[in-house]
Amino acid sequence: MKIIELHESVTASNDRDADALRKKMKDEGTLLINVMSSPGSGKTTLLSATINALKDEMKIGVMEADIDSAVDAERMEALGVESIQVHTDGMCHMDAGMTEEGLKSMKVDNDLVFLENVGNLICPAEFDTGAGKKVMILSVPEGDDKPLKYPLMFGESDVLVISKIDALPYFNFSLEACKKRAKQLNPAIQIFPVSAKTGEGMDAWISWLKEAVRTWKEEN
What's the pLDDT tens digit per position in 191-211? Predict the structure, then answer.
């Protein structure tokens, strides 16, 4: 497993770099998914369950972005997929230049690459990484009011995964209120309530991923 030290891109236009990277990934037939969430949302647990469900059907890579440590990348590598750890030099997000540098370190031509962005609901939404899809994870313990507090994140994401739904009986969290608030910000957002622990809702999420990869390759 590689550990890469990256710094914020100093290029003139991150959006231009992101568009170029997206086209490159499209030409190569690799779907890059930017996965965003706050710390403790269950992001790594969800990715682990997702990879176990998909790794026999497609080649998967994971880029773990964090300020320090390599714990998450080691967990991904233990699942039998290519994994690299990116250290962001204190930056609270990944941008397109940093993402491309990380991807260059991957040896396998993967069908699907997950970028597990730095954990927070503000900075990652502000920078286009060049991903083909943006997925955000909101856990039940965080509360159903988060769309009101972080509108950009919900507005920018293609998919909202509501995680830890097995904890619904223990928290004052309304699935319907959360869905309504997210849809008001982003009518096109797709929402998947899931529990990686019990498996509830995972089939729909996995089906969406398979279709997203298939469509990405066919539209190449």
Answer: 999 999 999 999 999 999 999
Burial environment of residue 12 by CB neighbours within 10 A (0 to 12, 13 to 18, 19 or more): exposed
Radius of gyration of the chain (CA): 16
CATH number at residue 152: 3.40.50.300
Domain count, the chain: 1
Under 8 Å CB-to-CB from 125, ≥6 apart: which residues?
A: 36, 150, 152, 153, 156, 157
Nearest to 132 by CA among 14, 33, 13: 33
- Structure pTM? 0.90
Instruction: Name the residue range of residue 156's domain.
Output: 2-6+15-213
Longest dimension (CA), the chain: 49
* pLDDT tens-digit readout, 131-170: 999 999 999 999 999 999 999 999 999 999 999 999 999 9
- Residue 219 falls inside a structural domain: no
Q: How far apart are CA 6 and CA 187, in angstroms?
A: 35
Handedness of CA 70, 72, 73, 75 (dihedral sign): positive
Q: CB under 8 Å to 214, separation ≥6 — which residues?
A: none
